[in-house]
Amino acid sequence: MDQTEVQANGGAPSPPSGASTHRRRVVRTRNGLTPEQRRRQRRQALIEAGLDLFGTKGYNSTSVEEICRTAYVSTRNFYEEFENREALLWNLVYQTMAEAYDALRRTGPDESAPGCPASAVYGSSPELRGRISRMVHAFVDDPRRARLVFVECRGMSLLQEYRRRAAQQAFAQLLGEILEERGAYIAVNESARGMFSLAIVGAVDLVLSDWVLQPERPTTDELIASLSEVIGWMGSGAITRAGDRR
User: Fold this and answer.
1) Which of 43, 65, 81 is the endpoint of a domain?
2) Are residues 64 and 176 in the same domain?
3) Are residues 74 and 182 in the same domain?
4) Virtual CA dihedral for 115, 120, 126, 127, nearest 10 degrees?
5) Residue numbers of the domain that contains 77
6) Given Cys at both, which of 104, 169, 188, 237 links 135, Cβ 3.0 to 4.6 Å?
7) ∠ CA 113-237-225, rounded to 5°
8) Is position 7 within any domain?
9) What digits encode the pLDDT tens for the residues 199-232?
10) Which residues contact 59 (CB under 8 A, 6 or more apart)?
11) pTM of the entire predicted model
């Protein structure tokens, strides 16, 4: 090896031909956490703080600074994760809606769902009551989440209203598929079925909103039983007749 080659490599000899020049990347940690883990931890802390503050004090009474103090996160880190308070609230609302949607989509009875002895004529089948039970539990088991979905996210902005409407449309489409499969649309004109499903979703939305705002709320079991009967009645009793024959 000549002197020129040594100088070109900063005084160190060149590696043998064909040898790998890659070095193992060293990830620095702090308190045993990588930067990505710390970021996920901060994001989760902000989400938990937002849920608690928005769900108890209310969206309009909560500032970004208060969320950050509660989460022990800087405002700079907040804006690295969320564009603004509205984005944080929608993240929480979307997560709850997604869980409730998946709960409604799952088939099979729910052993914890209350019976509806008063629904002999207009009640829904055990399978549909199970779907309704799981959906309601996803919405209201944590009253803070219920408040976010049915009270706090209303009227924030036109964008959020479009998002909320899109979510209602998704629920209506799923419910329509469930009802049609069970024969509840026998007496409903095909052109009106989408509107019919949306009307049921609107009724459920109103009932759950009222539940959130009541100072003395009915129990979750009472709420599920009432909603099962309402949906059965709006289905003109066809849910029971078609579903229980299966």
Assistant:
1) 81
2) no
3) no
4) -150
5) 35-81
6) 104
7) 25
8) no
9) 999 999 999 999 999 989 999 999 999 888 887 7
10) 85, 89, 148, 152, 153, 156
11) 0.76
